[in-house]
Design goal:
The protein has 6 helices and 5 strands; from the N terminus they run αααβαββαββα. It is α/β, with parallel strands linked by helices.
């Protein structure tokens, strides 16, 4: 045994010559890797928590705020598109109705000029119908026989014909006077509408029934109640 050999270290730890045993620590590299991973995880948690705090205090996570913002913008917009007014409709009332989300008011019978044409072989129907409509407040235009386009070709009670803008104005009002009439539109520019009497025509609706139908037609619709989460504008 060499003099350099420590006591008790014989055998394979015996030092001979200039070679010495190296004493290494076990598991040192593993501890370094675990420490790095733990530090990275801690930094990630801190960063995530910071972002959540910023998100909460800035109001970004409040879904109700976003919904309220959309509702407010919807209320700010003026509902409905532009309305073309029937003749005699008050423009101020129409603008007010547009701001409140209601359709433009329907014209009154006195604001509607009706041309009455007879498309049947029976005589006198056009004049008698025109006289009755006049008593009920309608303005009367032409009265006579129907043109060749409609003469003896209207199988129902009648046809109410007018411009496209009359489809939601004058024609529904006139339709309260003649049950079962067909509503049509054409490319005319004028405000007058036509009542073309057909083969099944017997008489106009009774005045009291027509008045009730007209009152129902012109009655404003109730404002719908907002459901949960909706804003009543």
């Amino acid at each position: 045994m060499s003099m350099l050999t420590p006591p008790g270290m014989g055998g394979k730890y015996r030092i001979t010559g200039d070679k010495y045993p190296r004493m290494r620590r076990t598991g040192g590299r593993r501890r370094i890797v675990l420490a790095v991973i733990a530090s990275a995880a801690a930094l990630g948690l801190i960063g995530w928590g910071t972002l959540q705090l910023i998100h909460v205090f800035s109001g970004g996570g409040d879904t109700s705020s976003a919904v309220a913002g959309r509702a407010a913008s919807d209320c700010d917009r003026e509902p409905g598109g532009p309305h073309r007014l029937a003749r005699g409709t008050d423009p101020g009332a129409a603008r007010e109705a547009g701001r409140e989300g209601r359709p433009a008011p329907l014209p009154k019978p006195g604001q509607i000029t009706v041309n009455v044409f007879n498309a049947t072989p029976r005589g006198g129907l056009a004049k008698g119908t025109a006289d009755e409509l006049k008593k009920r407040g309608f303005a009367i235009g032409e009265v006579g026989n129907a043109t060749k386009e409609f003469d003896k070709k209207v199988k129902g009670t009648g046809i109410l014909l007018g411009a496209r803008t009359a489809a939601t104005a004058a024609l529904p009002v006139l339709g309260t006077q003649l049950a079962g009439a067909e509503l049509r539109t054409d490319g005319r520019d004028g405000d007058e509408v036509d009542l073309i009497i057909g083969e099944k025509f017997k008489d106009l609706v009774k005045k009291e029934d027509a008045d009730k139908a007209l009152a129902t037609l012109t009655r404003p619709e109730p404002t719908p109640q907002p459901s949960n989460g909706e804003k009543n504008c």
